[in-house]
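Query form — protein F-box domain-containing protein

QUESTION: What is the three-dimensional structure of this chain?
INPUT:
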Amino acid sequence: MTNFNKNISNLPFDITEHIAAYLSTKDLIECLCVSPEWNSIFRPARYRYVNLRYQLYDNFRPSFSIFLKTLEQSVKKSKRRKTVVPDTPRIHELGSSIRDLTMEDGLMSVKTMDKLAALCPNVNKVSFEWQLYPKSKINIKPTTKAFRSPHVFFEHFHPPSLTTLDLTGHLDGIPIVDGYPSFSETVIPALHHVPQLEYLSFGCLMISVTIPQVEEIHSCCPRLKGLKLHCPEGTPRNTNMINSPIDMTTITPALTMEKFHFPKKFWSHPQICELAWFKYIILKYPKLKELHIVSHGSVHIPTEEGGNFDSSSTTANLVLKNHFINLESIKIGFFGGENSTAWPQLLKDIRDITLVDSGMDISSDWIKNSTPSEIIRLNLPKLPNDLNTLRHFESLRHLTLTQDSFDTRTFAYPELPVDTVLESCQALETLAAKDYIITCKQLSLPRDTKDKSLSLLKEMIMDMVIFEDNKVLTHVGERCPNLERLHLNKCDWINTNKTPFIRIHMPQNWLKTVYLREPAIRTTDTRTRSNNFRPKCISTYFSHKVSNSAKVTNYPLYTTIRKRISPCGAVVEGGYANSGSNIESLIDCALNDEGHKDDMPTCFTLDVLGDEYYDFYLTVLCCRGFGGIYYNEARLELDKEENLDYFEKKVILPLF
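ANSWER: The structure tokens for F-box domain-containing protein are given below.
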């Protein structure tokens, strides 16, 4: 082991960091426990993603101080070891491993900003949020909160490796009588310090962005590849800047731009801006690969004549692909909720389409008139009138059905026959659905048609759906032998057979990842969601295939945590504060927080993950309040195929 320690110590840090990126959290923690040498080598990998939100306020300042001291001690330890043993490769500092940093304005002084910049020189992504405070509420002391802008922070913190920046401004709820700062006053000065930026996202409900200001963005960041703008829903404060004219002949194309996003709140003044903005997008971004133009209210896509995309428009033959040759993905919708017979022509030859307007009629003619054979990824806001028309999508690999048009009076959701969808889309690999009642016309496959009806589905994501029967997922398992990922988020089961538990019985499938969050059973056969309806969280049993023969295994949660039985099932229990002591002690150990032991009921979420050997481990996430508003989370184990940043960003501080 000594020789092996020496060999791995001689590897450059970039190599060991690359190795650690392929390790699951379980494997990474095991590496930390091998020896002190391995601990010093792999420990920095735990600091790739750091979330410092809320750490800069009075109640959390001790935590932030501990974080800074930990980074400083790492630097001192590295220098001391190099001095004592000159031939030993220098231990990499923890701060140098931080790549993704989430920040928020608070009581950070200029001196602290400089210290943080020195300790974290290799950050390539920063998410920064700030509040638009009234001047009367700000301390005279020069802190990040006092500046009402991110530019002072980035004046001191601008590592050369920074390529991704996410800026979000908030209003603290108190009216600001002295006016709101403009985009040119707040964001543009910050961008002058990061000319190497490649991706920028900006959002603030009180600050509008104009075409000239977008030109300023590209002037500050000439390498920009992606731009997302989240702007006011109502009338911006400075309408003069919105109406300011611009000479389109002076526009220089940004040939590096690949992604441009317009959230639905962007188009606040369709009568003024739509023609200018559309011309600007075409002239400025000819190399776009991804475009989001989601409008709001009665806004329509602008054309040369300013008309709508319908059969009566003289510009109905406009094809976006002709203007954006490299366009691969588009998100479009909320254009007055009207049908547009020209949309199939407009979206011709685009392979990734997301429609977000539930008011449009997704008829069979609409699908046939488009280019369904070319589409590989489709996101629909509602079910087509005839599900059988999905057969025209011969190459469709990913289908997402997000129902956002349920009856607001009864909260009734439409039914989604999952077997019909699988029959219609033979090449489908990923099926995602939200806010549907999942049904199955035929819960078992006839023996003579089993081989012919098999699906290529590998991933199934169900979000806030209602399962009609326990056997629906069993049918999916029979039809989809290649299913590897099952994601169930806040799903309900209708208790039609009076059974006191939810059984996810899929013995044929070698699942690699199973995600269960707050499963619940309905005591009555109700098919609606009501604001005052509180489903009862009950036990959930999961069974899977452990060998060549099917086998059902049911283990209680505490056994799984204590002994890490492999292979094992998962049981989600509780939903109230009197949950098992083993769960609470585990959360205590992970979070070091007593906040969940209050009078509020506590919900627990289990993330059951496994690898190809079917070793299952558990992740416990703690929510406050029934049905849960997250106030803290602990990521204990992670599937090696998952991205670390999804959960790690939500942890207040990484484990030191």
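ADDITIONAL NOTE: The chain is about 25% helix and 20% strand.
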